[in-house]
Specification:
Helix content: 55-70%
Largest sheet: none
Shape: globular
Structural class: mainly alpha
Number of strands: 0
Strand content: under 5%
Oligomer: single chain
Distance between the termini: 47 Å
Length: 161
């Protein structure tokens, strides 16, 4: 991979990788650190990275960096939560987004990552397997279970959209 190809890869996939990591970590600064580390590893390995596979390489490295980060930083995350009803009327779109985010937060880290890779980023089962180091049938089973959990949470009477 040349310097130009590296820059093109950064321009094409930086936002996707950042969104994927941010959705899983739910902390902007940590997500930026993980993404920056992934780009740094890709830069160091650029001579061995095939330009055609830079997206897959980048997501794989970012995913593993994220898992390492989670393991290292088993810490309590403090965040301010605002009651949406306190502001008056609730926009149905915001309520739907809130419920979906709550449902995603109920999943394990692996399940959330699989859902994000498949449903948000559009990766195939085979590609997800390579990124997460699972075989294709494990990806399908874990993803199926994650979707069942999401559906179960979303269709609860108190969460019906």
């Amino acid at each position: 991979m040349t310097e130009r190809e590296y820059n093109e890869c950064v321009n094409l996939y930086a936002d996707n990788v950042y969104r994927f990591i941010l959705k899983n970590l739910r902390h902007e600064e940590d997500a930026r650190d993980v993404v920056q580390g992934a780009f740094e590893k890709m830069w160091v390995s650029r001579k061995t990275v095939d330009n055609e596979r830079c997206k897959s390489f980048l997501f794989t490295v970012a995913y593993h960096q994220m898992i390492d980060h989670i393991r290292k930083n088993k810490r309590i995350s403090l965040r301010e939560e605002f009651n949406e009803n306190a502001r008056g009327t609730v926009d149905p779109k915001l309520d739907t987004k809130r419920i979906l985010n709550e449902a995603l937060s109920k999943l394990s880290d692996l399940q959330r990552s699989l859902v994000m890779l498949k449903d948000y980023e559009g990766y195939s089962y085979e590609e997800i397997g390579k990124i997460t180091e699972l075989n294709e049938s494990q990806v399908k089973v874990y993803l199926h279970r994650a979707r069942l959990q999401l559906r179960e949470y979303i269709v609860r009477v108190e969460n019906v959209i």
